[in-house]
């Protein structure tokens, strides 16, 4: 008998959603490039505080053979802080929360919806980590 694998519901990210002008400027400064040039950004409130965090990746992500880097960034008073950097083919929001912050599902295959790694918020490290690691 095969071991049970926990299922996680996933919510797709809204890449291309509108971002406020001050956030666009702060992200451009942090990334040291024009964010409208080659980047996809999904604003999402990961900790349900009413303020969006941003998940950023290169537009060419699906066109390369290796996993992409998804940066998770937050904005605090016009400055940007990095909350994680996750290698994946695709990233989605999980329904679970750790310490009040939503989990992220990192997919490693473009054809297998069950091949993912769960990333959770680790407040002691101030970043997302793979579930089960410390």
Can you describe this structure?
The protein has one helix spanning 21-31, and strands at 10-12, 39-44, 53-58, 68-76, 79-88, 90-98, 101-107, 116-122, 127-130. It is mainly beta and 134 residues long. It contains 1 helix and 9 strands. It has one domain (10-130). It starts with 9 loop residues before the first strand and ends with a strand.
Briefly, what is this?
The chain is mostly beta strands and about 130 residues long. The protein has one helix spanning about 20-30; strands at about 10, 40-45, 55-60, 70-75, 80-90, 90-100, 100-105, 115-120, 125-130.
Key attributes of the depicted protein:
mainly beta, 8% helix, single chain, 4-stranded antiparallel sheet, 134 residues, 1 helix, 5-stranded antiparallel sheet, 46% strand
The 3D shape can be described as globular
Q: Oligomeric status of the shown chains?
A: single chain
Helix content: under 10%
Segments where pLDDT lies below 50 for 5+ residues? 1-5
Number of folding domains? 1
Largest sheet: 5 strands, antiparallel
Radius of gyration using CA atoms only: 15 Å
- Beta-sheet strand percentage? over 45%
Distance between the termini: 31 Å
Which sequence of SSEs, written as H and E, runs from N to C? EHEEEEEEEE
Structural class: mainly beta
In round numbers, the mean pLDDT is 85
Total of helices: 1
- Please tally the β strands and state the result: 9
- The strand line-up of the biggest sheet is 1-6-7-8-9
